[in-house]
Amino acid sequence: MILSAVLNPWLVAALTFGLALALLGALRVYQVRARPRPELARKLFHLSGGLFGLSLPWLFDALAPVLALAAAMTGLFAALRTVPALRDGPGQVLAGVRRRSVGEFCFVASFCLLFWLARGDRLLYAVPLLVLAVADTFAALVGAEYGISRFRTWKGRKSLEGSAAFFLAAFLCVWLPLRLFTDTPRLESLFIGVNLALMVMMAEAAAWWGLDNLVIPLFGFALLKIFLPMEAVQLAGHLAFLLAISLFVRLWRSRTTLADDALFGVSLWGYGAWALADWRWVVPPLLVILTYTAVTRRTPHDHFRAFNFPVVLANITAGLLWLLLYRASGLADGFYFYPFATAFAANLAIIALVRNRHADPGAPWPWALLAAIGKGALLLAPSLLLVDGVTPAAAVNLLVGTVAVVISTAAFALLQPALADYPVGTARWLRQALVTTGGSALVLLPHLGLPWELGP
């Protein structure tokens, strides 16, 4: 039974908000009297708030009161940050941990999005939220208490012990509900639990600024929905591919400039390209990883694995767009694969250009630009052959793709100041993401139903 069908839903929302205030007040009293570590108080709120949020599908049957409750909670969290009396009082439950985070706001957003996406399916709503509440809390507490083997993330460090705790807790949060409340067979339940726990653990390791409170439930929801109809053989194949690409990235890490969280992200990206399309879509990003330090000029930065997952995200932004459009459209492989491959070729060319200008700032601009574009074209050629084969269409698509790489690289060179200083700030990565997205879109022009349409 849904409570809002018996009582006024707005009254239920008001009562729920009142209970959330009482929970915050109780935790503040505990914090003042027991003086626990700040991380413990914050995670207790995370755990209890997440478990509290599990009740929403049993309280409401419509989205509107859930959105009203979320708006009230968002206003509360904003007040806890900005009103001095609240910030120094109950706000310390959240703000006692001195780090920048939007975690509480993502937490509220995840409730609303899951409620909307689940469409009344309580399993699809509850399992991802359970993973967020329990596994994330368990990982943080175990990592803080027992974490020894640390790995680098953006603006901080996490531990392998914490990640292992996350995996174990997430597995149980998936496997137990499947066994207790569904008729999913035992072997399939086991594979779904392992697959989802491993992938969400990797996503959590790559997340930053508290975005894991949004990434974990939404990614968990998507994976659960994808995996539930699969048979054991299919699920085993997904697990095998993820483990294979993760092993490769792990072995190749010393030849990259990527930090540990970025490597987790690269592994998930490779898996996603394969799962949403097929193995050919893994080739362009794989070629970037294999070649970007080998075919470009060496720099002093190559001695440090300093680039975190946001850098990877900037480099895959355009590719992710084309991959999702391909998945949603149902069009032939080639249509969106052409800009997908071109985007990675343009990224490689831009990386080569920046590294060249830093290593040899006195080199003539035309030669530096041509050398960078040539390296991008080297990636583009084998990628397009996977779709077109050795055909006239492949030659024309390669020409069009190369022109797009030229435009993207030249645009970046014009927009990005101080290339010789090896820019690595947020502005550089935003420019790179924008020019590669826009430039790769040009490849679609010959395929938009024009008289000279090419390819499949």
TrEMBL record:
Superkingdom of this protein's organism: Bacteria
PANTHER family: CTP-DEPENDENT DIACYLGLYCEROL KINASE 1
Name of protein: Phytol kinase
UniProt keyword Methyltransferase, yes or no: no
Record bears the keyword Metal-binding: no
Signal peptide residue numbers: none
Origin species: Thioalbus denitrificans
GO molecular function: ATP-dependent diacylglycerol kinase activity
Keywords associated with the record: Kinase, Membrane, Transferase, Transmembrane, Transmembrane helix
Segments crossing the lipid bilayer: 101-118, 124-148, 160-178, 190-211, 232-252, 272-295, 307-329, 335-354, 366-387, 393-417
